[in-house]
TrEMBL record:
Keywords linked to the UniProt accession: Endoplasmic reticulum, Heme, Iron, Membrane, Metal-binding, Microsome, Monooxygenase, Oxidoreductase, Transmembrane, Transmembrane helix
SUPFAM superfamilies xrefs: Cytochrome P450 (SSF48264)
Similarity comment: Belongs to the cytochrome P450 family.
Listed transmembrane segments: 13-33
Protein name (record): Cytochrome P450 CYP6AX1 protein
GO cellular component, one term: endoplasmic reticulum membrane
Cofactor requirements of the protein: heme
Domain of life: Eukaryota
Amino acid sequence: MNAFGYEVSWFDIFFLVVSLVSIIYYFGINTFSHWEKKGIKFMKPVPFFGNTLDLAIGRQHITTCHQVIYDYFADDAYGGWLANRSPLLMVKDPELIQQILVKDFVHFYDRGTTVDMKLDPLNANLLNMTGQRWKALRQKLTPAFSSGKLKLMSPQFNECVDDLCGLIDEKSNKKELIDVQESMSKLATDVIGSCAFGLQFNSLKNPESEFRRMGRDILRPSWRFKVRTFMRVISDSLPSLLGVKAFDKSKEDFFINLVNDTMKYREDNKVERNDFIQILMNLKKIDENMEIDPNNESHVILDDKLLAANTFIFFIAGFETTATTLTFSMYELAVNQEIQDKLRQEVQTTFEKYGAINYDSTKDMDYLDRVISETLRKYPIAGSLIRRCTKAWQVPGAKGKLEVGDRVVIPVYPIHHDPKYYPDPQKFDPERFTPENKRSRPPCTYMPFGDGPRICIGARFALQELKTTLSSILLHYKLTLNEKSKATLPLKMKPRRILMQSEQEIYINFTKIK
Ligand code: HEM
């Protein structure tokens, strides 16, 4: 055979193919020894997919994958494994978890998500930011979530819940099935619309709402998500190298324009409202009047792009998480009638005392707090926490250290379901959260919002939304599980989703209380 003027023999071709296959194979296994070198026990991986083959092909939800790994390291404080080719350390011991998330936080500043903020400007947000820039931004944004600001948002929450009750009544009158996840997603979209953007998104009133569609599309596993997932099997930074964006341009423009137009309208018309955009606009004004060195890492200037990216993350991080938690809590109340009756009793008594559902009255509902805590225990929407080592850290009891770039996973879901901390973990039991029972558990065994300085910034906002919605619903309706849903039990989680969500639709009957 003749190629490029050279005589190519069959041996040459054979040699080339074997070399190529060997290189590819080596690439698929070259991270296998990562944990062994550090003297850390690890789970036997398979080439390319490490310990996440079932996850990669969509046969497993990420929480199930973490449960399998958690069970494998039964009596160990930690263990090494590979997500595709990336080495990860799963830390199981609560004391060690506290050390990583809180005490030794300087060693674990970042989440280690591989995002390209230039390629995807909406990713330049608090969730993805790293190091000193994250710290400076977090300090700036924290006041937006103070209890004072939250208290002022009560009327906005109530307006949206009234619209939800309107939707429930309309569907019940027409004898239509009520898909709770979809209804709660609409509610949470409208709440974020009102509290973040100061706009009426109207998803509850208008089935064609653009915002509901946007929210649904952005979280749905698209072809883009699948391509990026596949690329990550090869290398975490491949999507960025090849310019494959996380969000398509139309969605990115939609959010950036929404924020810019809202700000312009307010500036031109001298409108001020009680919402996140206003708080961020006020912070931006302060930044504009200060002399800040743009090259100083410990300063961030809140410009239009950063403002849009962070309003965007409030939307993304804020609506699906609360909507799904509400769905699971209503499901559990519908299947546990005694708990529902007890909760309604508390809501009615407190409502009579305060004459309203608001920040103060919900603060007085202890049992409501326990029901929500138990929901977040059984269904911790985020499933796990991740940290990237930012300063070498000696792994207690091991030969080696975690080096900069090594990543740690905190398995929240398996810890929340470990009978050692929560006997009979599948049982929905709010009494696990009485003050005595809470005290009896080690720290870092309840982490639905994470822990340490990177704990969820929106936790108080989310809890207030959950409390307002659940108490208002229980005041007006009795919840029972629809026969159509009963037939599909037990609940299964949707694979290929980062957050937990039921694979089956959950239909609930809402019977009006006279
Ligand atoms: C039930 C509702 C929610 C749950 C279960 C939840 C859960 C979480 C978790 C587990 C984290 C990671 C914490 C860590 O790594 O230690 C997180 C981070 C975050 N959440 Fe939430 N979240 C909820 C609602 C919200 C809401 C309503 C907002 C905003 C309005 C929000 C905004 C954020 C942001 C910006 C971060 C990144 C914080 C940082 O890195 O500094 N979340 N959330």
